[in-house]
Every structure is written in C-alpha cells, then in structure tokens.
Amino acid sequence: MRRMRSLRAALTAAATAVAALGLTAISGAPAQAATPLPARVFAPYFESWTGESPAALSAQSGAKHLTMAFLQTATKGSCTAYWNGDTSLPVAQQSFGADIKTIQGRGGDVIPSFGGYTADTTGTEIADSCSDVDQIAAVYEKVITTYDIPRLDMDIEVDALDNSAGVDRRNKAIKKVQDWATANGRKLEISYTLPTTTTGLAPSGLAVLKNAVTNGARIDVVNLMTFDYYDNATHDMAQDTKTAAQGLYDQLAKLYPSKSPAQLWGMIGVTEMPGVDDFGPAETFTLANARQVYDWAVAKGINMISFWALQRDNGGCPGGGARDNCSGIEQNTWDFTHVFAPFTSGGTVPSDDFSLAVSPASATVKAGASATSTVKTSVTAGSAQTVKLTASGAPAGVTASLSPASVTAGGSSTLTLATTAAAVNGTYEITVSGASPSAAHSATFSLTITGGSGNQCTAAPWSSGTIYTGGQQVSHKGHTWKAKWWTTGEEPGTTGEWGVWQDLGAC
After folding, report:
1. Is 183 helix (H, G, I), strand (E, B) or coil?
2. Which site in 125, 293, 383, 477 is 20 to 30 Å from 190, CA atoms measured?
C-alpha cells in the first residue's frame, strides 16, 4: 500500500542515521500470553503517520481490530525499526502503546505491519535493510512483546518482492521468532500481504511463500491486495476479489497438500481499497461490491477482510482520484467499515460495558433549521464508566454537537444538528460513537434536509430493496440518478463512472 513519507521523518532520518543501533539477538524477555485473534477478523489498515489516535478512530468507526501501517527502518542498511521510519516513533510504549492497550481493553487488537510501498521501494523494509537474521528476528520480537500482540503482518510488494536475499532473511527470521514463541508458550501468527492478479499471485509473490516453506516458516494468512491491477481491463471489483482468492486457493493447495479445503480458505485474507484506487475510476470498489465480498467471505470461511485505509472511509472527495484521506466516491463516513465490521467473530466481552442509542433516530428539517435527538447510554455489564461521545458524517452545511460530550454510562446527552441555508438537500447518516476505557459502540441518526441549495428532489427516494430498470430515476443524497439498466441493491453514487447509475446532478 502507498503512503507519502512525512517531511519530518525524512529530515529526522537524515540527521540521526549514524545513531541508529540495531538489536543483536533475540532477547531473553519473557513472552506474555496475548489474546489470539478471532477465527474471522475485520482489520482495516490505519495510517499511523497522520497524527490521529488509532483508539479514537477505532471507537468512532466501529472497527475493533486494526492493521497498523507501517514499521520500517529510518535509513537503508539499518537494523532498527520505527513507525514509518520516523525516529521520533520508536518501537516503545510511548509510540501508540496507550492506544493499543485501550483497543485491547475493548476486546479488539492491532496487527503491526512491516513494509509497505515506501519501505519496499527505498530499501528500508527491515529484511531488505538489515543483513543480520538474528537482528531482524529481535526486532520482530520487540514489537510482539512491547505491544503484546498476537500477529505480525509483512506487506511485501514492488522491489521487495524481487529482493531474493531479503525474502530469505525475512522467512528465516520469522522461523526464529516462531520457535521463540513456541518455546515460551505464546500464540503467534504471521500474515503476508501481497499484490495479486485477478487469478492469483504472480510468480514473485508465490516465490515468497515457497521460500517460507523451504525455511520452515509457518505462514498463517496470505492477504491479497485486491486492487491496483493496472491491467487496463474492465473490472468488476467484487468478482475480481473472488477469482483472485480462488487462484490463491489453488496455489496454496499445491504448497500445503495436507491441508483441508476449509483450512486453505482459512489461510486467505483480502484487502480492498474503498472507492477509486490508484489506477483510477476503472477500478472502483463500491459499497455494493463490499456487500458482495462480505457475503462471499462468510460463505467461504476466509480468515480476514481488510481495506486501505480507515482514514479513506468517507465521502469527502466525491468524483476525485485516489487519496489517503477519502474514497473518491459519494458515501457516508464509515460506510465500508459498517459493512465489514460484523465479519469479526468471537472476541472477548468487556467486563464493564454499556449500550448506546439515539431517540428519535431520524428527523427531517428545512435548510437553516436544527434537529435534536437524545443520546441514551446504559450499563450492560460491570460498573458504570465514563463514555466519551463523538459524532461523524455530517455533510457540508451541517454542524453536529453533543452536550455534554461525555457522560457516565447510564446518563444521556443531546445531539444537535444545526443546518445552514447552504446545506444540500438529501438524506445523511450521522454516526454517534461512544467510547469508554473498556468498550465502544455507535448508533446512527438519519437526517433529511429539504429546501436547501438547489431545488427539492422530486424523484422518489432510492430504496435498496427496489428493482429498477433502465431509464428510471431516483433521488439520493441531494442528487437525481438515472438507472442505465436493471439493478437492485446498488447504491447511487457508489457504482463509479461506468456503473449502473448516471448522476443527473443536484436537485
């Protein structure tokens, strides 16, 4: 996956390159007993260089598990890993430790990920950078014990795929850490995140897994990046995910002939890119695609669903290209997360828990007016804790506020949605999130605005359960849409330039 390396990281790396010291061997630190991940887990990537709190976004979005991107060295040749190669973010409690502990306390967890596009193209992926297998293994162990996590991810793409020496060192280090974990009674999983074609791994990706087998390194999950195909073909992104995973299944069956079909599917993960990917509109993953992938993933029994990245799960740049902070399509904030979050199975139940609801759950207002709703909380387990409340998903021209912004579980708050005359007609989903030290929950408020900028929509509102045929028009989120052909369940604004719905403009 791609990211822009921060200027601070680049300058700091240049200034401190000679001071970077690597670990020399696997330490004697005791292994703790991290809670294993669920058999099925949704764990979107979190862009850790943005300065945002992973615990806060986990609570707001409803994603209990996160894949944390990325760990890499500050300079090529170093054996010390930092978050994003930024020497001010070492592998230490001071760097995300409190956030990770909070997420774990709420029954979730994080998966630290090594590599990524920037590291893999600059020689700063730890196994490409460091030539000492023991020091690489020591870095892996330090991440595991510092954050008490049950899985490490290796995001290997571009140049790192072709670095055969790095591939071999990485798998040898994985084997050493797995032996250490076994000796200390610790459950540890390893995932490889790899680029894919629409029919399975390319030879370079498959070679990484073959080398792991040769070195005796156990790979628990192979996570396909089911986007950025760059093949100039017409894409049904949901169908491409299915064929890519089937191709991987066939490849894994040859690598692991003793595994059952259920075990092989249980080794597979998929990572989508919500909305428009780096190639452009021809590769647009829609909410309709997300629902199809969810149903397929549950039926097949795959291990993981992820996407790049949590900060992109919003409609802040509709009609735009791929960006790290929005999807490029019309959507509500956290729409993709809400589709995929139920995929996670099992997990731990917080000892101190609460419920959250909004009443009423919807309102219709004329632009310039306000709507209010009561946010109610109650204790469902253990003792009452402080619940911090936030609201997200308000469109331009709408301000969401909560008074008070935190309550003791059992208390209530008032949600106020104030609109301006510039607010666009349409129906918007506002997510109200509550987070305590041990749990996080959310509820949705549906706000319909009339009489705003543009004329009030006259076409019937779109309905997910209605069948539409070519030429029929609907209104949705302040726009009028025309169906190009038969469709049902595909949300206007999510099907891309060549999808079923044609945008006729604001109404």
Report:
1. helix
2. 293
